[in-house]
Design a protein that fits this description.
Length: about 160
Protein backbone atom coordinates (compact mmCIF):
# COMPACT_ATOMS: atom_id res chain seq x y z
CA UNK A 1 0.00 0.00 0.00
CA UNK A 2 2.86 2.33 0.82
CA UNK A 3 4.45 1.65 -2.59
CA UNK A 4 1.22 2.56 -4.30
CA UNK A 5 1.06 5.80 -2.34
CA UNK A 6 4.67 6.67 -3.30
CA UNK A 7 3.95 5.88 -6.96
CA UNK A 8 0.86 8.11 -6.88
CA UNK A 9 2.82 10.95 -5.26
CA UNK A 10 5.58 10.66 -7.87
CA UNK A 11 3.00 10.65 -10.64
CA UNK A 12 1.27 13.72 -9.18
CA UNK A 13 4.62 15.53 -8.89
CA UNK A 14 5.41 14.75 -12.53
CA UNK A 15 1.99 16.01 -13.60
CA UNK A 16 2.39 19.22 -11.57
CA UNK A 17 5.81 19.85 -13.16
CA UNK A 18 4.36 19.23 -16.60
CA UNK A 19 1.49 21.66 -16.00
CA UNK A 20 3.91 24.30 -14.71
CA UNK A 21 6.16 23.91 -17.77
CA UNK A 22 3.22 24.14 -20.17
CA UNK A 23 1.78 27.21 -18.47
CA UNK A 24 5.21 28.90 -18.47
CA UNK A 25 5.59 28.19 -22.19
CA UNK A 26 2.11 29.55 -22.90
CA UNK A 27 2.78 32.73 -20.94
CA UNK A 28 6.10 33.34 -22.69
CA UNK A 29 4.68 32.21 -26.05
CA UNK A 30 1.89 34.80 -26.13
CA UNK A 31 4.25 37.72 -25.51
CA UNK A 32 5.98 37.61 -28.92
CA UNK A 33 2.63 37.11 -30.66
CA UNK A 34 1.27 40.22 -28.95
CA UNK A 35 4.39 42.18 -29.92
CA UNK A 36 4.03 41.03 -33.54
CA UNK A 37 0.39 42.09 -33.57
CA UNK A 38 1.26 45.54 -32.25
CA UNK A 39 4.01 45.88 -34.87
CA UNK A 40 1.55 44.88 -37.59
CA UNK A 41 -1.07 47.31 -36.28
CA UNK A 42 1.36 50.24 -36.11
CA UNK A 43 2.86 49.54 -39.55
CA UNK A 44 -0.46 50.28 -41.26
CA UNK A 45 -1.45 53.83 -42.19
CA UNK A 46 -5.10 53.69 -41.11
CA UNK A 47 -5.89 57.08 -42.68
CA UNK A 48 -5.53 55.84 -46.25
CA UNK A 49 -8.86 56.27 -48.09
CA UNK A 50 -8.94 52.74 -49.49
CA UNK A 51 -8.47 51.23 -46.01
CA UNK A 52 -11.27 53.41 -44.65
CA UNK A 53 -13.48 52.23 -47.54
CA UNK A 54 -12.56 48.60 -46.88
CA UNK A 55 -13.44 48.85 -43.19
CA UNK A 56 -16.63 50.73 -44.08
CA UNK A 57 -17.53 47.98 -46.55
CA UNK A 58 -17.22 45.34 -43.84
CA UNK A 59 -19.31 47.40 -41.39
CA UNK A 60 -22.03 48.03 -43.99
CA UNK A 61 -22.06 44.34 -44.95
CA UNK A 62 -22.43 43.34 -41.29
CA UNK A 63 -25.30 45.82 -40.87
CA UNK A 64 -27.00 44.40 -43.98
CA UNK A 65 -26.60 40.88 -42.58
CA UNK A 66 -28.14 41.92 -39.26
CA UNK A 67 -31.01 43.81 -40.88
CA UNK A 68 -31.82 40.99 -43.31
CA UNK A 69 -31.63 38.22 -40.71
CA UNK A 70 -35.26 37.17 -41.35
CA UNK A 71 -34.70 36.61 -45.08
CA UNK A 72 -33.00 33.23 -45.34
CA UNK A 73 -32.65 33.28 -49.15
CA UNK A 74 -30.96 36.69 -49.15
CA UNK A 75 -28.72 35.56 -46.30
CA UNK A 76 -27.66 32.50 -48.31
CA UNK A 77 -26.75 34.78 -51.24
CA UNK A 78 -24.69 36.94 -48.87
CA UNK A 79 -23.12 33.80 -47.40
CA UNK A 80 -22.04 32.60 -50.84
CA UNK A 81 -20.74 36.07 -51.76
CA UNK A 82 -18.67 36.34 -48.58
CA UNK A 83 -17.17 32.89 -49.08
CA UNK A 84 -16.50 33.75 -52.73
CA UNK A 85 -14.63 36.82 -51.53
CA UNK A 86 -12.50 34.64 -49.28
CA UNK A 87 -11.92 32.17 -52.11
CA UNK A 88 -10.76 34.94 -54.45
CA UNK A 89 -8.46 36.54 -51.84
CA UNK A 90 -5.30 35.01 -53.29
CA UNK A 91 -6.00 36.38 -56.77
CA UNK A 92 -7.04 39.70 -55.28
CA UNK A 93 -3.78 39.85 -53.31
CA UNK A 94 -1.74 39.27 -56.47
CA UNK A 95 -3.71 41.88 -58.43
CA UNK A 96 -3.47 44.47 -55.66
CA UNK A 97 0.21 43.67 -55.12
CA UNK A 98 0.88 44.42 -58.80
CA UNK A 99 -1.12 47.68 -58.77
CA UNK A 100 -0.60 49.06 -55.25
CA UNK A 101 1.01 52.31 -56.45
CA UNK A 102 -2.29 53.51 -57.93
CA UNK A 103 -4.19 53.52 -54.60
CA UNK A 104 -1.79 53.10 -51.64
CA UNK A 105 1.26 54.84 -50.24
CA UNK A 106 3.08 51.57 -49.48
CA UNK A 107 2.94 47.96 -50.61
CA UNK A 108 0.94 46.00 -48.03
CA UNK A 109 0.50 42.93 -50.22
CA UNK A 110 3.18 40.34 -49.48
CA UNK A 111 3.50 36.98 -51.23
CA UNK A 112 1.92 35.10 -48.33
CA UNK A 113 -1.12 37.40 -48.23
CA UNK A 114 -1.02 38.09 -44.49
CA UNK A 115 -2.32 41.65 -44.81
CA UNK A 116 -5.20 40.73 -47.10
CA UNK A 117 -6.06 37.68 -45.01
CA UNK A 118 -6.26 39.86 -41.92
CA UNK A 119 -8.19 42.80 -43.34
CA UNK A 120 -10.22 41.13 -46.10
CA UNK A 121 -10.73 37.43 -45.44
CA UNK A 122 -10.90 37.64 -41.64
CA UNK A 123 -13.89 39.99 -41.47
CA UNK A 124 -15.62 38.14 -44.32
CA UNK A 125 -15.25 34.87 -42.44
CA UNK A 126 -16.64 36.46 -39.27
CA UNK A 127 -19.64 37.73 -41.26
CA UNK A 128 -20.08 34.27 -42.81
CA UNK A 129 -20.09 32.74 -39.32
CA UNK A 130 -22.74 35.27 -38.21
CA UNK A 131 -24.88 34.26 -41.21
CA UNK A 132 -24.34 30.57 -40.48
CA UNK A 133 -25.33 30.92 -36.81
CA UNK A 134 -28.41 32.94 -37.79
CA UNK A 135 -29.37 30.26 -40.31
CA UNK A 136 -29.00 27.54 -37.68
CA UNK A 137 -31.24 29.49 -35.30
CA UNK A 138 -33.80 29.95 -38.08
CA UNK A 139 -33.74 26.23 -38.83
CA UNK A 140 -34.22 25.37 -35.15
CA UNK A 141 -37.18 27.76 -34.99
CA UNK A 142 -38.64 26.21 -38.14
CA UNK A 143 -38.28 22.68 -36.73
CA UNK A 144 -40.08 23.72 -33.54
CA UNK A 145 -42.93 25.29 -35.55
CA UNK A 146 -43.18 22.19 -37.72
CA UNK A 147 -43.29 19.86 -34.71
CA UNK A 148 -45.98 21.99 -33.01
CA UNK A 149 -48.09 21.88 -36.18
CA UNK A 150 -47.62 18.12 -36.40
CA UNK A 151 -48.73 17.66 -32.78
CA UNK A 152 -51.79 19.89 -33.34
CA UNK A 153 -52.67 17.86 -36.43
CA UNK A 154 -52.38 14.57 -34.51
CA UNK A 155 -54.54 15.98 -31.69
CA UNK A 156 -57.23 16.99 -34.22
CA UNK A 157 -57.14 13.53 -35.81
CA UNK A 158 -57.51 11.78 -32.46
CA UNK A 159 -60.40 14.14 -31.49
CA UNK A 160 -62.15 13.38 -34.79
CA UNK A 161 -61.76 9.62 -34.24
CA UNK A 162 -63.27 9.89 -30.80
CA UNK A 163 -66.31 11.77 -32.11
Amino acid sequence: MEELSKAMDQHMDQMADLVQKISAELRSGLGPAYDNFLGFFHAIDWKEPWLICLISFHIVLLIIVIISRKSVNFQMCLFLLTLSGVYLAERLNKFLGDNWKSFATQNYFDLHGLFLSTLWSGPLLVIAIVILVNTLFSLCHLIVRWKKAELRHRARLSRNKQD
